[in-house]
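Issue 218. Parser rejects a valid record. Input:
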Amino acid sequence: MTRTHSRCLALGGVAALALLAVPALAQAQTGAQTDTAALEARIAQLEAQLAALKSEVQTAGATQTARNQALAQDIIRIEQRPAPAPAAPPPAAPADGFRIGANTLKFGGFIKADYMASNYSGGDPANGDALRDFYLPGSIPVGGADEGTAADFNARQTRFWLTTDGMIGGRKVGTRIEMDFQVLPGTGDQRTTSPSTPALRRAFVTVDNWLFGQEWTNFQNLSVLPDTADYVGASEGTAFARQVQVRYTRGPLSISVENPETTVTPYLAAARIVADDNVLPDLTARYAVVRPWGEASVAGLLRQLKYQTTGTGAIDSSTVGWGLSAAAKFKVGEKDDLRLMLTGGEGIGRYVGLNFANDAVLTATGDLEAIGLIAGLASYRHVWSPQWRSNLTWSAQSVDNDRALVGLGVNKFAQSVRANLIWTPIPAMDVGAELMFGERELESGASGDMTRLQVFAKYGF
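Output the parser choked on:
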């Protein structure tokens, strides 16, 4: 009950009591002289109060009605107000690949342009020689004259790849095809179109834990390769090969059988015979671990070395080659790292240093004797800021030749040192410069060296 209604009831009660009291008051004064004027005045007063009360009640009612009407209008306006538009959904993330049947297909690669200014102490390599595109320690000229600095421009390290991933028949299946323009020179020269021919790098399929096709050798640890401007970088000390294989990986252990190939040094001749007479594939095993401090691996290689000829002075000989390689990458602080690799063995020349040494040498009687070597690298990577980084790398290989068999014209030792500064102005793009010095020594003691400044720009997609 409102305050106005309470007041109205109270005043109404007072008025009723007053009216009821009039007859009783008249009876009580029957015998006496009634003051008519006073009574009439009292009645007039009560009538005035009732009139005022009626007016107040009417005013209160009108006010409440107005309030109710205003409230009703507010409710109508709220109900008729249009609903707010739904919030715009966040922009969709760019698709990572696209679907073809049960496979997700992705395309990627990078564009890389290089400028190299090189000086060779022992003679200038011919135009088109692979040494003019990347560091090939076994090709450093020895015995010639310094012809001054040679400049080379190329974009042959440009690379592209295509991958697929999917579930096929309840199996996880993936493929990769990767090509570049680094090895095959093309059909023209730099006078006109500077052509380069695409060359196959990797082509394999994986089914669950199995890999079939051409891939990096299981004897190699890719994570330890230095961050260099050059194609391979620390070539002399690096286990490096890509070849067809069948590999099985389970957890940290991987085992593979790989394409066999034997390179042979003829008796007392500084030459190379590439034999294709192997019967057994090369066998590798690698165990790798990843820990908070970094990662490490140890790998083993066991292989057959075989060479066979026909006709006069026919040769049919084979022997065993073996090798071990340990590699590690240690975190230094939050962003820096130290990368190390040490490889050694006998009969593993084509797996190390881009075949700086051959696998075996022929004796005077036509037998094969494995050639021993030891090689290693060390590289320190320092990150100056999110956009700037540098690398300092040293690499070397020493070959244990039997001079009585190989003569004095074969490779004995090679080493190189390089330092670079790389800038990343935008994501996926690197611009950098690298200065390197490399040298090669023969068993005779003759040597040659090269100094190279390489400037590059690379964008990955």
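Fixed in the parser; the record now loads. Helices lie at 3-28, 36-80, 403-406.
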